[in-house]
Amino acid sequence: MNFTKILTHWYSVNKRDLPWRQTKNPYHIWLSEIIMQQTQIKQGLPYYEAFVTNFPTVFDLANANEQDVLKLWQGLGYYSRARNLHASAKYICSELDGVFPTTYLELLKLKGVGDYTASAISSICFDELHAVVDGNVYRVLSRFFGISTPINSTQGIKEFKLLATKLLNNKNPGDYNQAVMEFGATQCKPKNPYCIVCPLENSCVALQQGTVSDLPVKLKKTKVTKKHFNFLVLISEDKKTVFEQRTTKGIWQNLYQFPLIESDKEINSEVFKSHPLVNDYFKTIDFSFSVFNPEPIIHKLSHQHLHTKFWIIEVKTLENEGIPISEVKTYPTPTLISNFIDTFDFSF
């Protein structure tokens, strides 16, 4: 069975009609690849269309304000992707005179671009012979060839990359790379794959051995940590609040939030009022407070679960710190904060 030929033919018949498949513009392909990392097509597609509309060229993206880029990205998560996207656009315009990199090695110099993204762009746009290996590819190859090497081990990464490279269609590497990824996304799915109508069923080792649900093998995930976040939602009589930008490195870097107090464990109203940080914050201000959500909102990130409470604090004035409450929606914020803003009634 010619694995490569069958998949390429399957792709020509079954591929989804997506806007970035109608072009070989490396800027558009780059946008699609960065946006679709850790993101499903149905969620990422509106973001791709928004970025192409708002920043039709790499110059437009480079000249944009970072706050506008982060605001457009809001809700996608993994915000470092947006910051890297913006930084790379600036690099392309300032260092490369706006000419997008045309080789795998040059693409690797862009922030946020690794082997997978460089392989995808270079093969799709410039026919370079570099095989992509993502979650979909791992799944297809591990099942078809019956490979139980953990995909997130050093040995597994090398083994699957070597195999993917051997299978590459030398005449049309871009279509083959897209074919194997599409096949994993829509046919050889993580759960309930369409094995009965699979064009590879006669030679699939996992199907023959009954191990489809066991592959690919992955080493245990990093332990998930638990954190307690207490956001201070200040509201003055003239309808102002305090919004702070996170400048420290992390997933929410440069996004905005209400003042935050982290605690070792969940705190109630009595503990909150006597908390030294709260007392220090309001030692010269008269205030009243209530908790918006007595039960913590659990916001799940990849390696941590945030148990969050929003404390509504009413004060007379905020001096020079405050911004109009009506403006908070214009700032780029984490989904956790934007969901609260959409839910809470600031008009009381």
From TrEMBL:
Family annotation (Gene3D superfamilies): Helix-hairpin-Helix base-excision DNA repair enzymes (C-terminal) (1.10.1670.10), Hypothetical protein, domain 2 (1.10.340.30), Nucleoside Triphosphate Pyrophosphohydrolase (3.90.79.10)
EC number(s) stated in the UniProt entry for this protein: 3.2.2.31
SUPFAM superfamilies named among the record's database cross-references: DNA-glycosylase, Nudix
Task: Please name the top-level EC class of this enzyme.
Answer: hydrolase
Sample GO molecular function, one term: purine-specific mismatch base pair DNA N-glycosylase activity
The chemistry this enzyme catalyses reads: Hydrolyzes free adenine bases from 7,8-dihydro-8-oxoguanine:adenine mismatched double-stranded DNA, leaving an apurinic site
Query: Which Pfam family, just one, is annotated for this protein?
Result: NUDIX_4
Where is each HhH-GPD domain found?
35-186
Q: Which domain of life is it from?
A: Bacteria
Q: How is the cofactor bound?
A: Binds 1 [4Fe-4S] cluster.
Q: Which cofactor does it need?
A: [4Fe-4S] cluster
Question: What's in the keyword line of the UniProt record?
Answer: 4Fe-4S, DNA damage, DNA repair, Glycosidase, Hydrolase, Iron, Iron-sulfur, Metal-binding
Which NCBIfam families does this chain map to?
A: mutY
Family in the record:
Belongs to the Nth/MutY family.
Stated role: Adenine glycosylase active on G-A mispairs. MutY also corrects error-prone DNA synthesis past GO lesions which are due to the oxidatively damaged form of guanine: 7,8-dihydro-8-oxoguanine (8-oxo-dGTP).
> Which PANTHER family does the record cross-reference, listed alphabetically?
ADENINE DNA GLYCOSYLASE (PTHR42944:SF1)
- UniProt name for this protein: Adenine DNA glycosylase
